[in-house]
Amino acid sequence: MDESSQAADYDILIVGGGINGCGIARDAAGRGFSVYLCEMNDLASGTSCAATKLIHGGLRYLEHYEFRLVRESLLERETLWRSAPHIIWPLRFVLPHHAGLRPAWFLRLGLFVYDHLGGRKLLPATRTLDLRTDPAGEPLKGEFHKAFEYSDCWVDDSRLVVLNARDAAKKGAHIETRMRCVAARREAGIWRVTLRDETTTRIQDVTARLLINAAGPWVSHVLSQAIGQNETAAVRLVKGSHVVMPRLYDHDRCYIFQNADGRIIFAIPYERDFTLIGTTDIDYEGDPGEVTASDTEIDYLCAAASEYFKKPITRNQMVWSYAGVRPLYDDGAGSAQEATRDYVLRLQNGEGEPPLVNIFGGKITTFRRLSESVMKMVEKTLGKRGPHWTASAKLPGGDFPVMGFKTLCGELGKSFPFLAQDHIFRLARAYGTETRTILTGIENASGLGRHFGGTLYEAEVRYLMENEWARTAEDVLWRRSKLGLRVTQDQTTALNLWMTQAADAPALKAAQS
Ligand code: FAD
Questions:
Q1: Is the CB of residue 263 below 6 angstroms from any atom belonging to ligand 1?
Q2: What is the pLDDT of residues 197-233, one digit of tens each?
Q3: Would you say residue 1 has pLDDT above 50?
Q4: CA–CA separation, 293 vs 287, rounded Å?
Q5: Is the minimum distance from the CB of 180 to ligand 1 under 6 angstroms?
Q6: Is 240 in the pocket of ligand 1 (CB under 6 A)?
Q7: Quick check: pTM over 0.90?
Q8: 3-state DSSP assignment of residue 496
Q9: 405-512: CATH class
Q10: Which atom of ligand 1 lies nearest, measured to the CA of 221?
Q11: CB-based contacts of 396, cutoff 8 Å, min separation 6
Q12: Angle at CA 223, nearest 5°, toward 226 and 68?
């Protein structure tokens, strides 16, 4: 290593504050590397807030022989559940047998492989259901008699991102939101990265020994526009949409429905009062930041669910829809749904040049393993620092037993008797043991401060602004929480105004710095 490369501001600069960028920042900072992460918008404002939110092996990927990916993902389920049992929890999936589609023996075989491929210790095994007697059959059409029930996990995707960022920051990483990487050039053995503050338009340069391009659907854009290299063929953008309906059934299991076109969709209990239905798979060519669910996709999802539910699902029931773009590695597959969901890492490390790692593809489920693989590349070029450590570590607020969520809610209820049960439940789900930090010193309901709608009060908003990089009402209502489903437009406007004023207050500025 020459002297100039030691003079860089940071060891590693990461472009992109989605799950992959934040996961890598956390792992690297925990090993002792100095890390700077820039995110051009809010954390998790790209694909990482638009997932189906499953920590899953991907039963469907077995049909495409993606055994490596399925095994790694299955192994991750319990590891991630243990690390953050407030935002990750087990779900049972009901897969009805459809007489005209995949035969029952084929489904059973796939689930046998699924059960045995990846280190299941706590999650229950597959069982067969008689839908004529099991409550899971109640909301379905009478023609569905038989189903299989198996395990996967649920995750609050955007909170997983912010908890990784928080842990990274606790370990010394510098996380900067609303900061766009506009250029990156190699200069005297290090990277000189030009950043634009999206709020003030101020330009600044930061130097680093290694650059990681974790820009998700923008990975090729960063390569071509900021770094000046063309590798557009490596990424395939595949859009997926979801619709949210008022709760469609009473139990807490999910459905996985097969469609006649060979695809599958999920119907999942969502935010207590809703059902989430998704997703679609459509090749996409526009700006990933502008993606929305189209009428055709909404109709497709309603029709696919109506094939199974007794009561038809219609678009006029819909309370919300969202869409995201999968940044898949382009393996030349025919249809969008066949394109690999596995990740591919590309290290550019020419003689005397500072290294660049580009990330293509990846799932929420595999972010921790992806981060470990990236760290191997980092260590190969920058040298080894600390050991790998994330497999047994807790994320902020997750330091309670995997089966201990009810106990946590009970204890919080005793400590803060002035809070309604649904309020405690929501806070415990979002913040786990850190709920106490938000409520420290508050002794009655008026101590929560101004009410913004739903169960949102000033104390929580201040916490989000001081500790979780929240700047706008959208950050709070749609990414740090899903309270957007429960507040009015007027309440959103009032929250925005309050946050703008609070951000200028000296006390908040001091807390943030
Ligand atoms: P992103 O989350 O998009 O992050 C990239 C970030 O880079 C963005 O926030 C962007 O603003 C930022 N950025 C871009 N350019 C710049 C720049 N120049 N400067 C600074 N910042 C920049 N996975 C699962 O495991 N389970 C699921 O159930 C699941 N369901 C899915 C359903 C759908 C419909 C979709 C679309 C994906 C799903 N996934 C699922 C996949 C998963 O969501 C993605 O693989 C993952 O979120 C990608 O994360 P990322 O960090 O690579 O990208």
A1: no
A2: 999 999 999 999 999 999 999 999 999 999 999 766 6
A3: no
A4: 14
A5: yes
A6: yes
A7: yes
A8: helix
A9: mainly alpha
A10: 15
A11: 163, 166, 167, 170, 432, 434
A12: 150
Q: Rg of the chain's alpha carbons, rounded to an integer? A: 23
Cβ partners under 8 Å of residue 356, min gap 6:
191, 210, 211, 212, 213, 227, 347, 348, 349
Shortest-distance atom of ligand 1 to CA 21: 51
Give CATH for domain 66-155+236-330: 3.30.9.10
Q: How far is the CA of 19 from the centre of ligand 1 (A)?
A: 7
Q: Is the CB of 38 under 6 A from ligand 1?
A: yes
Sequence ranges of the chain with CATH classification 1.10.8.870: 405-512
- The answer, yes or no, to whether any atom of ligand 1 lies below 6 A from the CB of 397, is no
Q: Return the pLDDT at 393.
A: 98
Q: How is residue 188 written in tokens?
A: 């005297």
Mutate which of 20, 47, 73 for ligand 1 pocket (most atoms within 8 A of beta carbon): 47
Q: Where in the chain is the domain with CATH 3.50.50.60?
A: 10-46+159-235+341-392
- How is domain 10-46+159-235+341-392 classified at the architecture level of CATH? 3-Layer(bba) Sandwich (3.50)
